[in-house]
Description:
Blueprint: E1 2-4, E2 7-10, E3 25-30, E4 38-41, E5 47-50, H1 54-71, E6 72-82, H2 91-101, E7 105-113, E8 115-116, E9 119-120, E10 135-142, E11 179-181, H3 190-193, H4 203-210, E12 217-220, H5 227-234, E13 238-242, H6 248-257, H7 269-284, H8 296-311, H9 317-326, H10 335-341
Parallel strand pairs: 2-13, 3-6, 3-12, 7-11, 12-13
Antiparallel strand pairs: 1-2, 4-5, 6-10, 7-10, 8-9
Amino acid sequence: MLVIDNQTVYFKSSEKMDEIQDDTIDIIITSPPYNRGKHYSSDSNVKYNDSLPEKEYFQMLNRVWKECFRVSSEKAVFFLNIGDSATTQGLSEKVANSTEQAGWIRIQDIIWVKSIYGKGHYTPSGGNKRFNNVWEHIFLFVKDKKKYELNPKAIGIPYADKSNIGRYGSSDLRDPGNLLHICYEKTTGATIKKGHDAPFPIGLPYSCIKAVPNAKSVLDPFLGTGTTLAAANSLGLQGYGYEMFPRENLIKETIINKSQYEPKTPILIPHYERSIKTLLQLLENTNTELSDLKTKKDRINMEILLDTLEKMNISSNFVEKIRKKLNLDNDKNSTLFKFIKS
């Protein structure tokens, strides 16, 4: 057992959670083993091949989901993260069905987008047979439809059109919708996958916890690297986790180091566009001269800027200055020129 602040980790299976009393947990967040044949190992080098026969896999999950149901309060909310791989298409729906069979009521499917339009990271797996998978499910379940609460505006985004403030609410916040764009902090490899095949970024459990009002306790029955408890610690909730194949030092580091997490306020795409236009208007009224492009990086950055402005249908004297500086009409070796013509 490991205790850090108000977070407790049990190094055992969550198929029997005798350490937790009935009706005490308000939020459950987890990502179960995907049963893809990945190998897990603990500090003591106990290895687990995540490739159970399908019947055994779902029997195991059903026992865990029933225990989660037992320990959860009547207002409990359960966020279940799982994705489909190239070889396990349909697995996520089967896992969601197994959760319902344990008594949970399915409310909604939230989409966690890991990468979109070049922002964010994912593990390339498509090759020339399929598209890369850049999103996963977060199934939302509850114990009692009449007793649970959600406050989506607790993780809300600002209105793009400020004239809507007052029309739909008194604050500059709106429901973010059932699509969460939460990026990994780093790319793939040992940095983000050490000790668990599919660790999620702390922004995911943080958002889930924050969206549930008046919650006091959080449980992750498949703790992995400990990210859920780091989020619980950051928000001041009591947390419990179970992990059969623990990397204890990694879990400690995660809970301690990530407990200072503070989410970044998102910048809306319409605000990016408006800011660019406003900045260009300001530049039109100055005698700003563009500095020389001394490096390849300088040139690429300037080409990206010009490409963006042109795609926004912006024409101005400043844009012409950029074109002249780049001399794109005569420069057939331009990185973007070659890309656009290809």
